[in-house]
Amino acid sequence: MLKKDDFTYFGKFLKPHGTKGEIGLLGESFTLGDECDFVTVEIDGILVPFFFEYKKSKNNDTLIVKVERMNSADEVRFLTNREVFIPREWIEESDNYSWSYFRGFTTEDANTGTLGSIVDIDDSTINTLFVIERGDEEILIPAQEEFIEKIDHKKRHILFNLPEGLI
Known about the structure:
Layout: E1 7-17, E2 22-27, E3 38-43, E4 46-57, E5 62-67, H1 73-76, E6 83-87, E7 106-109, E8 113-122, E9 129-134, E10 137-142, E11 148-152, E12 157-160
Parallel strand pairs: 7-12
Antiparallel strand pairs: 1-2, 1-6, 2-5, 3-4, 3-6, 4-5, 7-8, 8-9, 9-10, 11-12
């Protein structure tokens, strides 16, 4: 069984492309390496792998992929808008992560202590925000590099140094 901790958010499936089982795949977090031959989708709480027959680049952040054993637009349509996860070891080394990469990271402030986990990224306004869940409350923190003191990618943890009064 695939463990969610071994995977990281990549992006989402778009709509079917053509009629032969191809579908768009938007990479919101980083680029896929050549070794990537499948992605996983969470269905009913379980990560389900979907293997590629092939993948080709459409533009900087979008791939067109042909999913194995799916040969029509109708067969791949149920994947539309579903979140996609990939094994952590497939992340290409880069210092340029999108903010979406940090979903699921635990957070802490150098001054106030534990904040909670990043559950979403709000980019609906000009100022992108981390949406952090702490118990029953939701904390919004501006996604700005100057507030980030340290990132531990292995432990999936961010240490912030937030201005007084922000929380």
